[in-house]
Design a protein that fits this description.
By secondary structure, this protein is mainly alpha-helical. It has 15 helices and no strands. It has helices at about 5, 10-30, 35-70, 70-90, 100-105, 110-120, 125-145, 150, 160-175, 185-200, 200-210, 220-245, 250, 255-270, 275-295.
């Protein structure tokens, strides 16, 4: 497949988004004790802007008049998809268990369906709703390791409230993408990244003023490099294009690939052994996505 044609393959783009975000969940959890959440978000978007700027500069210059007219919309997209979503998600890792975070993230596609109905009166089709429920079941099987007792022991806490807040932001961002300004994808990406970096300055200043400083180690720099490139520049480029091609409701269940990729990473890097529940969960997720994403 030619590199240029990848940008016209929505299923591949959305799968890559989930892959990069699965890595972000693991890296973000590991970096939670090294970098405060707002500072991690601010450094993430600042570095991401430096990465994307050389590729987006010609498009930014050409699209600047349109971007300037839609500064309010760009700010809203940055608040929902960049600054607000990531600060809430990273902060939640300080207050909740990893399994709580993964379980709650699995209901994200339902939030997308709610927002598309509220904003545009677009209902989930029967196939979409069925597919989402099947893939969500698969995600639960993977996360709970096929143990229903995990759900019974679920205890709601403040971190979970933050996760739900982040999901509301993400779902609203996803639903609103159909109304993004008519500019080049690289212009839109660079503008929202820059706005995200600016919006997160106040909480970063507060963290520094209250003595919450990052611990500068090799691991810190490695984490920052990853989150700036993969879950920021590449993931959002793939997400924006994927939703543009097939719509928010059909794209939403691809979020359930995150526990699939996360468990595969655990096998590859942590030596976790494949289990029967992995195969069952993977099958349910893939079947659900296939059903929900069909036209």
């Amino acid at each position: 497949m030619k590199p240029g044609r990848i940008f016209d393959q929505p299923y591949l783009l959305l799968a890559l988004t989930s892959l990069f975000w699965a890595g972000n969940t693991i890296i973000g959890r590991a970096a939670a004790d090294l970098v405060p959440p707002a500072t991690l978000t601010g450094l993430r978007w600042s570095l991401a802007f430096l990465v994307v700027l050389p590729f987006s500069w010609p498009h930014l210059r050409a699209d600047w008049p349109v971007l300037r007219r839609h500064l309010g919309a760009i700010t809203l997209f940055a608040l929902l998809g960049g600054a607000g979503y990531n600060v809430a998600a990273y902060l939640a890792l300080h207050y909740t268990e990893a399994i709580n975070s993964l379980l709650l993230q699995s209901i994200g596609p339902l939030f997308v369906g709610v927002w598309t109905f509220v904003l545009f009166r677009e209902r989930l089709t029967l196939l979409q709703a069925t597919g989402i429920l099947i893939s969500m079941t698969g995600a639960f099987v993977i996360i709970c390791r096929a143990d229903l007792g995990v759900l019974a022991r679920f205890a709601f806490n403040f971190g979970d409230v933050l996760i739900l807040t982040a999901l509301v932001f993400y779902a609203l961002y996803t639903a609103l993408l159909r109304r993004r300004p008519a500019v080049h994808p690289m212009s839109f990406l660079a503008a929202t990244i820059a706005a995200s970096a600016v919006l997160v300055v106040p909480p970063v200043v507060w963290e520094v003023a209250t003595g919450h400083l990052p611990v500068l180690t090799t691991a810190t720099f490695g984490a920052l490099a990853y989150v700036a490139i993969f879950p920021s520049v590449l993931a959002y480029l793939c997400l924006n294009r994927g939703i543009e091609l097939i719509g928010a409701n059909r794209a939403a269940p691809f979020l359930h690939l995150m526990p699939v990729f996360g468990s595969v990473m655990a096998m590859v890097f942590l030596g976790e052994r494949p289990q029967l529940f992995h195969g069952l969960g993977y099958a349910l997720v893939l079947v659900g996505i296939f059903i929900a994403a069909r036209r």
